[in-house]
Amino acid sequence: MIVAHLSHQELMHRLARPGLRLRTGPVVNRIQSRLAKVVHGVELHYADCTIEDSEGFADFHVRVAPPRSPRRWIAPQVQFQFDGAGPFLPLPASQAFAMLEWGLNWCVSSHCHQYLIVHAASVERSGFALLLPGHPGSGKSTLCAGLVSRGWRLLSDELTLLDLATGHVVPLPRPVSLKNASIDVIRRFSPGMEVGPPVHDTVKGSVAHMRPPTDSVRRATEAARPRWIVLPRYEAGAAASLTPLSRARAFMHLADHAFNYDVHGRQGFELLAQVIDSSDCFEFHYGALEHAVAVFDDIARRA
Amino acid sequence: MSSPSALRWRSVPPDAIVWREWDGEFVVRNERSGSTHQLAPLAGSVLQVLLEAGGALSVADIAARLGDHLAAAPEPDQYAAIDAVLSEFKRLGLVEPEAQ
Amino acid sequence: MHPVVHALRDPAAVVSSSLPQWDALVRQARRTNLLPCVALALDERGLLPQVPPAPRVHLEAARTLARAQADAVRREVAYIDRALAASGIPIVLLKGAAYLIAGLRAARGRVFSDIDILVPRGALASVEAALMLRGWATGKTTAYDQRYYRRWMHELPPLRHISRQTWLDVHHAILPITARLKPDSAKLLAASLPVAGEPRLRVLAPVDMVLHSATHLFCNEDVGNSLRDLVDLDSLLREFASEEDFWPRLTVRARELDLTRPLYYALRYAVRILGTPIPAPVLHEAEIGRPPPLLRGLMDALFLQTLQPDRTTDRLASLARGSLYVRAHWLRMPPLLLAQHLTIKALRREEQKAG
Q1: Phi, psi of B97, rounded to the nearest 5 degrees
Q2: Which of A34, B2, B38, C185 has the smallest C-beta neighbourhood within 10 Å, fewest atoms?
Q3: How far apart are CA B48 and CA B28, in angstroms?
């Protein structure tokens, strides 16, 4: 059964009381919340996700709820709770769904040491993975959203999971987060994709999420071999230019952008070396998504 | 203060290091410090020489073993370059000096 | 029984748990910082392959993390050793770092946070100076905190290394000078033992390690880690039980250091909760530290309640935790100072929330 099979009422009730157990790639989250924004967010973005048995094992038990404090009546807030503990400070209630997304990312990046986790977007074509590591503002999520709406399969928007044994990317297809101007860019570029209502005044500005394509969710068990590593840089008006990046530099970039590189010690080093060995590495400047998609389609064809 | 050639340098034991090289550039992980570094061609070659040596080497020894890695630069420049690399390595905990 | 306690006492039985039981166990183990410990308990009996895949990945991930932390602690201890080598001051490692460097079973599956060392009180200033030369700096900086740590507590303010971001606590006593119990640090230092293969590092003698662990458990602020601390104690007691004269020396030493009360509680709760095998004569000897019946009843309620699985809706448990927090402070500081300190701590929490 998938989320889309539930009526709105059923979804609301499940999220409120026993919690809803959702599978996203290799991770099962039990999500509890009475907040309308969370219900709507789940209804939209997780429509294709499998609902897991309540008599099973959930990897993470999370709750998005108002904190127990007088502030809940004055300026409504929400808090992300992991197993009863609240690792984050509360945020304004309007950001409830965004908070769920950030919290679920925190759970994976803090605990899933069965993978080497890189802070990167990743997409797939013909069994090969394109990794887009990048600091915030590099445009990696916009690029990811653009590629995904033009035939690339979404592997992950934020957390690229690398299997320790094979070095392959294990998909974690979850909503793609878009910020500020990107929201409208993607709405125009990808009218077929569903983008949720934006939330304003977050620490990152305005934030909205794009629903992962059904195909990406359904094929979440299909891993992909790393083939291209691209450091994106968005600059308004810039012509698309792909320049080779030294492998040593690309290695350091991956290590710097890995959440748990240090946890894996020597094995982490060997794994990243293996990924670099099998990949072409580039820096990429772009100003328009159409050009970017054309460039990547081209390198995919030549693979 | 002893002249550079009086000092000998020893790297951390080879089993504490993993390294890879692509197109002349190196990445190195030092188990002793837990840190990972990117090394330019000369630095990477100096480290390789020290790892292979199994004992302490002076700057002159290192220069001799580097051979054509150093191109045809005048000797004082070669020594200065190696010295700079060794200072950095000392700071990173990749080498230790041994006085004669 | 607390699922984590059950898993540690009988790993073979836990393997055949249902998925919902595994779900509860992994959550409770995370809350009590004992997931790596549970993982290793299963691993060393060759039982991990029998665990269903879904919970197993978490156990393996926890094991990986623990290994990485142990490596990091070893590295950090090496840095501390080098920093203090020239000073000639004896450094006694405490708690987790000590267990690890001394190769004790209590180090297995441990979650490490910071490193604690014990040095002679007269050497504090030179130790601080030597460490600052090598990149450590005091973390807490308000004048109040400086006074709290230096004059009233038993340590320099926690030191943080500038580039490695690791924490180091330098103690000259295992309890503050303002505390009611006054174990003599000079005796602890005098009885300390060298570590094989390490010319400068030392650890407490076995009986002192146990007494320190008992004191830490029952007199410290961080009551959220109570079960983990009790697991440490259990591990130490089991390992040292085979040493000649360990048991008689334990009770004698407790009297000598004025730590009979913590020892009483430690043995009492280790037996009741973890089933630690302790010879009857030892328990009898430890009765000398027994509190009055009313107090003991209260402590039983507090500790046994705290060591139950955490349910966030359980108000009694959170009240119990609150009382333990007050009690820990009381043992360390005279009542007036305590009230002042708690008010200030509460205010700073509010500041942090608002700011």
Answers
A1: -80, 150
A2: B2
A3: 11
Beta bridge partners of B30: B17, B35
Give residue-wise pLDDT tens across range A152-200. 999 999 999 999 999 999 999 999 999 888 999 999 999 999 999 999 9
Tokens 């898993």 correspond to C7
Q: For residue C206, which of C284, C106, C70, C69 has the smallest C-alpha distance?
A: C106
Cα–Cα distance list, C92 to A109, C81, C103, C189, C201 (Å) = 36, 11, 15, 7, 6
Nearest to C68 among A85, A114, A265 (CB): A265
Q: Cβ contacts (< 8 Å) between B27 and chain A: which residues?
A: 248, 251-252, 269, 273
Q: What b-and-e string marks burial along C268-279, b requiring 16 or more CB atoms within 10 Å of the CB?
A: bbbeebbebebe
pLDDT in tens, B32-68: 888 899 999 999 999 999 999 988 999 989 988 887 6
Strand residue runs (E) in A25-76: 27-33, 60-65
Q: Would you kindly state where each structural domain of chain C is located, as residue ranges?
A: 3-354
- Reported as type and span, the H/E element at residue A73 is helix A71-74
Mean pLDDT of B6-29: 92
Question: pLDDT-based confidence at A84, cuts 50/70/90?
Answer: low
The arithmetic mean of pLDDT across residues A59-82, rounded, is 82
Tell which wins on pLDDT, C139 or C25: C25
Q: In CATH, what is the architecture of C3-354?
A: 2-Layer Sandwich (3.30)
> Which ipTM was obtained for this model?
0.93
What does each C-alpha distance from C146 to A75, C84, C138, C151 come to in angstroms? 36, 23, 9, 8
* Structure letter (DSSP) for residue A211: P
Contact A109, A59 (CB under 8 A): no
What is the spatial distance between Cα B80 and Cα B98, in angstroms, rounded to a whole number? 18
Select from A246, A265, A273 the Cβ nearest to the Cβ of B20. A273
DSSP β-ladder status, A115-125 and A159-163? antiparallel
Structure-token pair, residue C211: 């007494």
Hey, is the C-beta of B32 within 8 angstroms of any chain C C-beta? yes
Give dist(CA A252, CA A256) in Å, integer: 6
Q: Residue B29: list chain A partners with CB under 8 A.
A: 265-266, 269
CA distance A243 to chain C (A): 33
The 3-class secondary structure across C93-151, one letter per residue, is EEHHHHHHHCCCHHHCCCCCCCEEEECCHHHHHHHHHHHHHCCEEECCCCHHHHHHHHH
Torsion of CA C112, C113, C115, C118, to 10 degrees: -100
